[in-house]
């Protein structure tokens, strides 16, 4: 009985701390590889997109790709490739010779469910090593070309579905070529302009 009371008190303390953390900042730092960061309901999407691409992406890279610096100084480079100011995919190129990691960091930005099942605006990062990122972007471009006639014959009716590991893609046409992307609870649109810019700039950056 005594242990149950202690457990209840600890739970209440943790719940209070979590509530205070939500009030303290619009952005909650992720605590795991698949963790989501929720933003305030009235947050400016354009400003948050900028924050994600320029600052939160670097935080993720340091914490989850490079790891602890300990007594070293570690150099790494990032470059924002394409960003969607409303909701979708934000792409960032990354290189760190020290840990021999380079590739594409995708920031998913859109609606998702929190642990209580409530829907809110959130973001989360998915890292793809360079060789696999280039192969994926090339495959998407080839599939767009291969199924162009089928997709364009019926707007938002004909779809092509494929997967890359834990990411699902649907190619379709609705006022322009679009890619619908599903990952970790996100369902976002990769607009044609943002996709083309990501492909072009990623290859150029690593030339």
Question: What's a concise summary of this model?
Answer:
With 207 residues, this protein is α+β, with helices and mostly antiparallel strands. The chain is 40% helix and 32% strand.
Explain the layout of strands and helices.
Blueprint: H1 2-24, E1 37-38, H2 45-66, E2 77-82, E3 88-96, E4 101-113, E5 119-129, H3 130-146, H4 148-153, E6 160-164, E7 167-173, E8 177-183, E9 186-191, H5 192-205
Antiparallel strand pairs: 1-5, 2-3, 3-4, 4-5, 6-7, 7-8, 8-9
Structural commentary:
There is one protein chain. This protein has 207 residues and is of the alpha+beta class. It has one domain. Helix content is 40%, strand content 32%. The chain has helices at residues 2-24, 45-66, 130-146, 148-153, 192-205; strands at residues 37-38, 77-82, 88-96, 101-113, 119-129, 160-164, 167-173, 177-183, 186-191. The strands form two sheets. A five-stranded antiparallel sheet has the order 1-5-4-3-2. Strands 6-7-8-9 form a four-stranded antiparallel sheet. A hairpin with a 5-residue loop joins strand 2 and strand 3. The longest helix is centred in the N-terminal third of the chain and has 23 residues, at 2-24. It is globular, with a radius of gyration of 20 Å. The chain starts with a helix and ends with a helix.
């Amino acid at each position: 009985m005594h242990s149950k009371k202690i457990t209840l008190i600890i739970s209440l303390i943790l719940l209070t701390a979590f509530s205070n953390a939500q009030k303290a900042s619009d952005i909650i730092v992720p605590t795991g590889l698949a963790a989501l960061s929720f933003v305030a309901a009235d947050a400016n999407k354009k400003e948050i997109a900028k924050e994600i691409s320029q600052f939160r992406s670097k935080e993720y890279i340091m914490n989850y790709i490079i790891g602890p610096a300990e007594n070293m100084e570690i150099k790494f480079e990032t470059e924002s490739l394409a960003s969607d100011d409303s909701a979708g995919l934000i792409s960032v190129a990354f290189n760190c010779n020290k840990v021999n990691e380079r590739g594409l960091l995708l920031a998913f930005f859109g609606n998702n469910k929190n642990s209580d099942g409530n829907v809110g605006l959130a973001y989360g990062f998915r890292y793809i090593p360079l060789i696999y990122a280039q192969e994926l972007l090339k495959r998407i471009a080839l599939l767009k070309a291969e199924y162009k006639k089928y997709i364009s014959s019926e707007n938002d009716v004909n779809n092509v579905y494929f997967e890359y590991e834990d990411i699902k893609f649907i190619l379709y046409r609705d006022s322009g070529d679009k890619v619908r992307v599903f990952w970790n609870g996100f369902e976002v649109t990769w607009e044609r302009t943002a996709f083309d810019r990501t492909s072009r700039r990623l290859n150029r950056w690593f030339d």
